[in-house]
Amino acid sequence: MAPALPVSPLARPLPELGSIRGVRLGAAAAGIRYQNRTDLVLAEFIAGTTVAGVFTKSKCPGAPVDWCRDILPDGEARVLVVNAGNANVFTGKAGRETCTVTADAAAQLAGCSPRNVYLASTGVIGEILPHERITAALPALHASLSETGWEAAARGIMTTDTFPKAAIRTATLNGATVTLQGIAKGSGMIAPDMATMLGFITTDAAIPAPVLQRLLSEEIKTTFNCITVDSDTSTSDMALLFATGTAENAAIDENTTTDAPILGAFKAALHSVLKELALLVIRDGEGVTKLITIQVSGAVSDDSAWRVAMAIGNSPLVKTAIAGEDANWGRVVMAVGKCGEPADRDTLSVSIGGVCIAHNGTVVAGYDETPVVNHMKGQEIEIEVSLGLGNGSARIWSCDLTHGYIDINGSYRS
Amino acid sequence: MAPALPVSPLARPLPELGSIRGVRLGAAAAGIRYQNRTDLVLAEFIAGTTVAGVFTKSKCPGAPVDWCRDILPDGEARVLVVNAGNANVFTGKAGRETCTVTADAAAQLAGCSPRNVYLASTGVIGEILPHERITAALPALHASLSETGWEAAARGIMTTDTFPKAAIRTATLNGATVTLQGIAKGSGMIAPDMATMLGFITTDAAIPAPVLQRLLSEEIKTTFNCITVDSDTSTSDMALLFATGTAENAAIDENTTTDAPILGAFKAALHSVLKELALLVIRDGEGVTKLITIQVSGAVSDDSAWRVAMAIGNSPLVKTAIAGEDANWGRVVMAVGKCGEPADRDTLSVSIGGVCIAHNGTVVAGYDETPVVNHMKGQEIEIEVSLGLGNGSARIWSCDLTHGYIDINGSYRS
What we know:
Subunit structure (chains A, B): Heterotetramer of two alpha and two beta chains.
Oligomer: homodimer
Structural class of chain A: alpha+beta
Function (chains A, B): Catalyzes two activities which are involved in the cyclic version of arginine biosynthesis: the synthesis of N-acetylglutamate from glutamate and acetyl-CoA as the acetyl donor, and of ornithine by transacetylation between N(2)-acetylornithine and glutamate.
Number of helices of chain A: 11
Main location (chains A, B): cytoplasm
GO molecular function (chains A, B): L-glutamate N-acetyltransferase activity, acting on acetyl-L-ornithine as donor
Shape of chain A: globular
Strand content of chain A: 15-25%
Strand order of the largest sheet of chain A: 13-12-11-14-10-15
Mean pLDDT of chain A: 89
Catalytic activity (chains A, B): L-glutamate + acetyl-CoA = N-acetyl-L-glutamate + CoA + H(+); N(2)-acetyl-L-ornithine + L-glutamate = N-acetyl-L-glutamate + L-ornithine
């Protein structure tokens, strides 16, 4: 393995984590790929826990993604098993067997059906995942599970991540105070098409699986699906939301829609947790030195605005200019122009750091670059584009492209 | 300006260039942006020269692109003016005025209509191009034009290019031997959607403008439109093909289609010139150390194969792995999976350097990485993907992503 990476300059400390009643978890070193660190995470949920999930849209998904998609309609979860270092992707029949054997072993420990066991893997693609190392480690790990194992779990799922990621929120739901607490991993191969990362969020709220799924699907769109590190979508993306029901809020009807007032506070808290986890992934983007927020307005639709914003956020020339602290707004114009979405040069405006630089197709008269140059020296860069065509808008987050990215990805497998 | 860049390790020497009767050209230092080098190129064509062109599909094209698009239907060219260092993009009314003033000045020198003057600009976006520097330099430059000014022209259009680029071919056409000779520039902001570069090809063939246009539009598709350095499409892309008619081949009817046998040899030579120029651009890709050829077959259509190939060729993770000489074929699988084109993991095969690594959704039994590791150490990397779905195929060319790219693009304007 390459030597340990220095911690991202944009890292955030772990928040003070509580526990979610009905969730016990922990991590162990199964020796799957890494030496001297944990790489296997197990979580067990109380009976009756509902679950929702979103998965990578990759046409080449990993075996665990197939496994989870298959069992998700049952809507009930009792166990989560995650390993880091090997993604179990493009591993054919052996990969499917690893899933079956792992789920059987975990189900036996928890006394549940294998179809209540969720699996996730992250790491190298195309190498057989040795399930015997997982099943050998599971019994001791299961015996060690606790309600306070959150930090261990957040660390155990890391790959090229340089810091562990977690978020916590509370909300009121139908007469009870409920908590949401989640962990995530992600640093490279990060582009939206769902999450491009692993995210596991739990809550003690009692919410039927169909409602949980509608909430997760909706809130993913403006959080995990609005980040990009390198435009490369993972084969292993997965975000799962588990609801134990231990907060004992009054029952929510399973036909409740996401705009129902009864769900308002919970939905806002869910959005907030997902957004924080998503931004933590960008803050750990491979080689990152700057967090970039890109706001596009005046597009013909929200979807169109999102695609324009992503074209800017994925442009190597925009990202290298920001790494070099160069307010090269011409590259923003280039990215808008190339992306194939409706745009009109002569109604286009570009601002950086709140300073309007270009307006209606040309540079603003008397444009003074000084405040923009100062803004570029900061860690958080803001780009605003107005297309002047309609009311569509979107906001996405990206990071700069630096020597660190090349270092990490030229030697990942070595 | 940043210090001069070292010459690309994949550079090719200029071929021995001849002349095209009816074309006189040269270069001068107009001081537009660069110091101590030529940055203005002028070419004059004999009366009766026909012209064809293809342009960037960017929604934010430069003023010279608008200018050329407007005059192209006339089908006749007498002058070409190209400047390097300033792209005259997003410059509003001032940019349009620069075009008009430059075309007027050049037309007066050549004794033709301004609508026979083709303009191209390349360099920084969003800065006003001072036309008085161009018009001041034009008279002396015009007086110095010669049939042997080709190398000077090839050098005068360079920006971040580290070597000049030209190609020459001959063919027979309707009883005469004709020559095609062209120059190009391009190194970064290179992605297909036409040429993403400047290319100027001349021939002494006599070909009506509509036929010339059909030939150029067709051959661009498999040459300039099949290269990528960084997925970023320029606002200034332009490829122009000028035919002086001085070879005096027998007349070609203007309704001749591109599949007519009479055009066969010329069309093949045109393809060959365009492909050579396109590959020279990749060989000068910013920071390049490896030329990557990506062949995709078994797709549902040729267009689909092209999009899959481009997803591989544009993937930062594939490109950094190749820079690191890492045969990380899992990232090829990732890129196929993410691009949204029809693909089936379980019929997918991947070869690198002629060695089949993965087949039908899993790694080949007994796969020995040794020959692939050796292949990765070379300068030319070959990736083949078979989707196993249909008969669509495409071949594209890309380059690796290295520290050199970050160096060049973090400081381009400084």
